[in-house]
Design goal:
Layout (H helix, E strand, L loop, with lengths): L2 H4 L8 H10 L11 H19 L3 H22 L6 E6 L2 E12 L3 E7 L7 H14 L4 E6 L2 H12 L8 E4 L3 H11 L20 H5 L3
Parallel strand pairs: 3-4, 4-5
Antiparallel strand pairs: 1-2, 2-3
Helix pairs in contact: 2-4, 3-4
């Protein structure tokens, strides 16, 4: 059994994709690299060299690309000891959204990493998800991680012009900017998210308390 499956990071429907990821190297825990961007490059290059043989159907291959990229980022975070991480995660009071990867910082709350190999207009979905998260957690941070320089440059320009509303930054995963970003994540104090008490009061009337008076 591969490490991702051992850690229970693989959903049933993604079993084949996880097996492809695990086949790229004997163990992502032993892959040598000097910079986080190099780790991403090694894994993505290994996958690209085999994907047409492993996944002959082009349409299916497009779907697998994104999940492989997500596993690469997840594996890197584990290697860099940026933990705990939450995959395919939901946030209380943010309905109908499954975030690709979430971290929880004691200073800023949730940190969302939206993982997309490329996106063109699909960045709008990540921006809407970021808006929904910030509507509940005002100082949360939301980042879009990609492999497309062109898409990153385009959306970075939109962020600077104020044409997006939730995204804090777009980062290319095989760039020096990504290395700096990973260093910044490592400096944060990350923890499990707190349990949310929806209603809190020290003056509570319950059916049981009324029954005790009768």
């Amino acid at each position: 059994m591969g490490i991702l499956k051992t850690l229970k990071l693989v959903q049933k429907e993604d079993g084949q994709t996880a097996s492809i990821f695990e086949s790229l190297f004997p163990s992502f825990l032993n892959v040598e690299y000097s910079w986080p961007s190099e780790f991403v490059d090694k894994y993505w290059s290994a996958y690209c060299g085999l994907r047409e043989k492993l996944i002959p159907n082009e349409q299916k291959r497009r779907g697998v690309n994104g999940k492989i990229f997500e596993y690469i980022i997840c594996a890197l975070l584990i290697r860099e000891k940026i933990l705990p991480i939450f995959l395919n995660a939901r946030v209380a009071f943010v309905p109908n959204i499954n975030f690709d990867i979430l971290l929880y910082s004691e200073d800023s709350g949730p940190i969302s990493l939206s993982i997309k190999t490329s996106f063109r207009e699909r960045y709008k979905q990540a921006d809407l998800e970021a808006m929904a998260l910030k509507n509940v957690h005002r100082i949360s941070k939301c980042f879009l991680i990609t492999l497309s320089d062109a898409d990153a440059n385009s959306v970075s320009g939109k962020i600077l012009k104020g044409e997006t509303f939730g995204l804090d930054d777009v980062i290319v995963a095989n760039s020096k900017k990504f290395d700096k970003f990973i260093g910044e994540l490592k400096s944060l104090k990350l923890n499990l998210s707190p349990r949310v008490l929806v209603i809190d009061s020290n003056q509570i009337v319950t059916k049981e308390s009324i029954d005790s008076l009768i």
